Fold each of these.
Amino acid sequence: MDFSLSDEQKAILEVVEEVCEKEFAPQSSEISEKGEFPLQNIKKLAELDLFGITIPEEYGGSGMDLLTWVLVSERISKACATTGLIFGANLLCTYPLLRFGTEEQKKKFLPPLARGESLGAFALTEPEAGSDAGNVQTTAKKDKDGYILNGNKIFITNGEVADTYIVIANMDKKRGARGLTAFIVEKGREGFSFGQHFNKMGLSALPNVELIFNNCKVPLENLLYKEKRGFRVAMETFAAGRIGVGIGALGVAEAAFEKAKEYSKERVQFGKPISSFEAVQHMLADMATKIEASKNLLYYAAWLLDRGKPFEKFASMGKLYASETAMEVSIKAVQIFGGYGYMKDYPVERYMREAKLFEIIEGTSEIQRGIIANFVLKE
Amino acid sequence: MEIIVCIKQVPDTEELHKVKINSETRTLIREGIKNIINPFDENAIEEALRLREKIGGRVTVISMGPPQAETSLRKALAMGVDRAILLSDKSFAGSDTLATSYTLAMAIKKLGKFDLILSGKQAIDGDTAQVGPGLAEWLNLPQITYARKIEVNEKKIRAERTLEDSFELVESPLPALITVTKEINEPRYPSLKGVLRARKEKIIIWTAKDLKINEKRTGLEGSATRVIKVFTPPSPSGGEIISGETSKVAENLIKKLEEHRII
Ligand SMILES: Cc1cc2nc3c(=O)[nH]c(=O)nc-3n(C[C@H](O)[C@H](O)[C@H](O)COP(=O)(O)OP(=O)(O)OC[C@H]3O[C@@H](n4cnc5c(N)ncnc54)[C@H](O)[C@@H]3O)c2cc1C
């Protein structure tokens, strides 16, 4: 078992860490306070070629593995969860394009995504279809030279800022999930517009937008994979995407832990730093242990995926564990900060609000437990 | 345009408080300290890359230093320079600014034709600001120091030279040597593709033999200066406040200055 990073990975992380520390972290509270899309961060990620990590060189990327993406994404999320989620949502577009796209589709859509000139998004969720992903009501009707899409998607990350959308619609409602079909829809297509911008508990700078399809015509060549095989596209994208969501949660947990640890050494009560009290020490010990456990699950899932081995169970475990860890760690971080932790002057209350999201997206914790139980009961 | 950038590897500014001095050799103890490219030299690299992007050409970085200076050259390659040369030889150790500028000059002569040499205004460890000007002297070149802006057209270069409370606009024919300040630009971060490319590239290493140099002019032997003592100056203490009527204060002050034979 080899846990060492390659020299290439180390060299890349050195640059990423510097950028995160100098450019992203100092801005992250302000970005969230103002709720402004962090365009300057996205430009920086593009300049550094980070959007193309997992995209092969022939499509304008660097052709590296998902583990490298994971290591980078962890650092970005630790410095700025908003930026990490934008980066992560992008993978939900590039991953299915790479996995299911035709040569023409890859040549057309991947290079601008790899260069970070355009962003990607993945749209499944609807008012009636959340955990019950098969219950998609958006319809796709075939006509002679394409498909006509009708319906609404909600909460879509990178909505409006993205140029390339993977959209799940139903071609045959009677067949439920077996009618689902995936399409590549470009921004600017007639009949495709944006509705509500959702107001959230945290991460206010992250775009989460309603997509509206009103007789939106999509050409035949924008069908992703096969007709009525969209459920598979969605499920495989979610499986890999869970590693990405888990790593976002891990980043938040690491940031909260670090702040709490530093604070506990500085804050003096009863004449001693609070880190000398066993109750605080035990909190820190639990936080650190769960962070390491999450990290190992997620790295392992990415490592398996990179080797073409079944990774799905570990991706779900990693996502579940990392998101619950982020929640627990950020709550404890607030506790360690005491009254100051409840104040907006310190970032730990923000981490708490950010952490909650990870227990919900890409399959709630309940859904993850269901998936994991399915795996283990079959084994 | 052939541009040469001279860079130095120095201990990280943020870790400078950790740097200790070996009291016997009077040199820095570098173990355990992260090394970086001298920040002003990063500005010089950035300026060279911008010039190349604008008018084409080639950028070569040169560094004299121990083998570990390779990491700084690799970062320069990742930022986008075309070639990196390390001047490394045991006999170069202990060089002062005279010997260093001589060694760099010999390497540049070996390289042949060039249009412009850039470097940072000074290194943050030694703070002498002498190597750039020294190099210009060895190569018999015009020099413009402390440039905060440069412009190249045809065979001429124009630079804004930072002075204490103003700037000078200086023009020089090419080839020339320019040292730059922090204000000149914001150095780029190396991109992922740059990092990957840099890992595959070879760093050229030249020793004393390769440079065909007069060894009496390099290293300790070629150094005109010796560091006798390195110490942290005690913070000034005492001091005296003269107060009262202005004219009396002035009188008093003059008396004191005369007493101390200052005037
Ligand atoms: C900030 C944000 C960003 C998002 N980004 C995207 C995006 O980019 N693309 C996209 O398609 N979607 C996105 N979503 C949607 C997200 O994936 C869904 O909200 C999530 O899957 C849950 O669906 P739901 O909200 O409909 O909740 P519901 O499915 O209604 O769940 C409500 C509760 O019921 C529980 N529950 C439901 N079914 C079961 C069951 N079978 N067993 C046990 N418990 C169950 C759930 O666990 C949960 O606790 C985003 C959401 C948010 C908040």
Amino acid sequence: MIQASAKNINVWYGDFLALKEINMSFEPNSVTALIGPSGCGKSTFLRLFNRMNDLISNFKLEGKITVNDKDIYAKDVKIDEIRKSIGMVFQKPNPFPKSIYENVAYGLRVNGVNDRRTLDETVERSLKQAALWDEVKDNLKKSAMSISGGQQQRLCIARALAVEPSLILMDEPASALDPISTAKIEELIFELKKEFTIIIVTHNLQQAGRISDYTGFFYLGELIEHDKTQKMFLNPSQERTQNYITGRFG
Amino acid sequence: MKKFRKIIEKFIEAVLFSSSTITSLTVILIIIFLFKEGIGLFKSSPLEKNYVIEVSKKNPVKELNATQLKAIFNQDITNWSLVGGNNDSIILFTTSNITDYYSEEELGSNLEHLNEKMGEFIIQHPNAIMYISSKSLPVGFGGHNVKVKDISVNDFIFGKQWYPTSEPIPSYGIWPMIIGTLMVTLGALLIAIPLGISTAIFMAEVAHIRIRNVLKPVIELLSGIPSVVFGFFGLIIIVPMIQQTFHLVVGETVLAGSIILGIMALPTIITITEDALRTTPQSLKEASLALGATRWQTLVRVVIPYSKSGISTAIILGIGRAIGETMAVLMVTGNASNIPHSFLVPTRTIPATIAAELGEVSYGGLHFKALFALGIVLFLFTIIINLTVEFVKNSGKRSRA
Amino acid sequence: MVVIILFSILGFIIYRGISVISWDFLTKMPDDGMTKGGILPAIVGTGYLVLGSMIFAFPIGVLSGIYTHEYLKDSWLKTFIRFMTNNLSGIPSIVFGLFGMALFVNYLKFGDSIIAGSLTLGLLTLPVVIRTTEEALKSVEDSLRLGSYALGATKLQTIHRVILPVAYPNIITGLILSIGRVSGETAPILFTVAAYFLPKLPSSIHDQVMALPYHLYVLATSGTNMEKTRPMAYGTAFVLISIVLIINTLASILRRRLGKKVKMN
Ligand SMILES: Nc1ncnc2c1ncn2[C@@H]1O[C@H](COP(=O)(O)OP(=O)(O)O)[C@@H](O)[C@H]1O
Ligand SMILES: [Mg+2]
């Protein structure tokens, strides 16, 4: 079974070809890490899945992206509907300058849900899933800006979980955090895998090795290799992957 | 429900869009209305409406221009031969000197005999030139009409005299005001540029953060003081000071205008220059310092060249502020419409002229049109300034990319 | 140096003006060729003009700023609107006066009236309000926008629920500062509303009014009895300066207060 897939993807920014002929698919309840030197197109690829690139004016896409067997770039698709069913976590924690509670409830509220009971339940469930509940349950009304960076990132994860996505996209979610917070996030990803499918961009090869089931190696806009993480790290079939993983470039 | 929300979003977007078009619309409307009211000046005869210049049928002169007419009525030209006629001396006749020739009884209590007398006059005085209302011409009048050349753009821009109300021919030459405006602005810049840029450098590169935190609001305040208050201050303090220092008859001079305008342009120049200096990347400065350059050398060789386009923008905007300023200048420059030959004589600027005279003119008259034409000139100045700013900004961006 | 200039101006006017200020000065009609009495009608007139121009310029300016910053992508339309807005802000205030007279007073036949003056002042402030709004929106981090979109919020929801709550302290501060600017403008009202001497309060928006800055101009330059109107002029200048001072202080207090509130919430 396939949760999400990319077929014959080419992406341009103006005249610049940022992604070339990418084919990739993702199994449910798996974690896939996207690695590669910076500028190789990892973020661009990741953002195809919730159509965030649409916000860039000179962006052009060729190929087909499906999530839950639905072509998300089809004409009759509503972008905000797509984004609701797919969670995203960014590199820098970006909580809204609202209370912790309102941050988590945001996705529901913009969806027209205002029922107090539903909101309360969802906020609690999401914060628990994001392993933040115990730390903030007495301070739900406090500003999200007042908690630590690591907590903020977990809050952003909770915020993404609240809309019950089937797929979660993470773009270097731990690169702005200290080692302890990073460990917490990694632990959390491990837990989340039970219920969600996760695609995560990371700069940190150890991290990719620790948390992912599959790894895709991007280089200059091409997908060089995509395989089980174990296999990729121990016995890559491509020389360029080997070179990157052993630190010879990038 | 979803549909409904979509419609609302579209509607709000439309509202937002129409708001954003208002500025463009206003600029266009300003252009239209300035031209609508002002351009008429250049298609009109300089004579008052319904007034005509008449001479005897025997007189060969058929056309005169405004300068000649003015000279004739000022008695600078007293012989017809100088304007292409016979060698006869000119006799002036205007509605205001009728009584030199005819008593009130002769004209009748309601001027009912006026027309008849006009007819008589031109027969008796074949060398006369008459400036009269076309309504006072009798049937079978024995004179012929002298054409007066329309006011030209050239006369308007380069004319050296501004006598908008003189009879029978007003003059609308704005050259003295253009020079006056430029001189006052130039003086203001000589004061504001060195002072403004050094303050900006001080704030951006030298001053302690605490001093900066004091200076910032001070400058904000300075830019918030109304121009009449500056004018008032200038009138009470600076004008007498100049008068005493230079032993002048009047202290209201180009210099007074320049000083006040210089002060008023300061906040613009300081703020924009400081912003520009601040955009210099820290890495660039550190690179220079690491190579052993002193702070001062870094400033002169790295920071200032890097911010060049920003500083130029600041100066040009400062010019814009100075050229357009009205009230303060009006209050301190003395409003004499002659070409200033030094900084210590009175002058008048374009905006000050509009402000001083528009209140007293009749709607739609020549003078009214002339003031709107002045507005056009001022508007063109500002457009040029804006285009220059745009150009400088873009070239700055390109050279950095 | 700049500080010295400012304080000499402020100091001088406050020093001379403060002794003139009294309850009567603020609440009485001018009297006796403007040598006695107060400046009430000018204060009221300026109040009306500020109010009128704000009613016009605030909504339109803020909406316009939101549109250009949040909706317009980098296109020729954005460049054009920006260029026009910059142009409008560079046009001298006296030209606005001419325009206001031609359009509102004569063409639309409002006559010299509060409405004509307010609209003229409103147009003059419009670019300032737009610029303020855009600056405030620019200071909102893009990551917040992305975060909101990623949760499926529409553009309008993002603006309404995330961007404006963050940006509004700066917008409000800017708006307040522009009030100060408007209350001191003279040139645009010369031919659209301002009355030389009108010792009564306006009863409708079609009335002429006196206004503080114009009143100061009149007192300073064309009073019938310069010696006796001087104190009145000092007093008026003092009131004008006080308005600016109060507004600037208010703005900076508000900026700090609201800024904190948004952060802590
Ligand atoms: N908005 C954009 N406009 C133009 N080029 C872009 C844009 N975003 C990214 N790129 C280019 O596309 C390439 C891939 O970028 P990105 O996906 O961000 O790389 P990564 O996340 O792997 O570091 C880079 O060369 C980058 O310069
Ligand atoms: Mg990236």
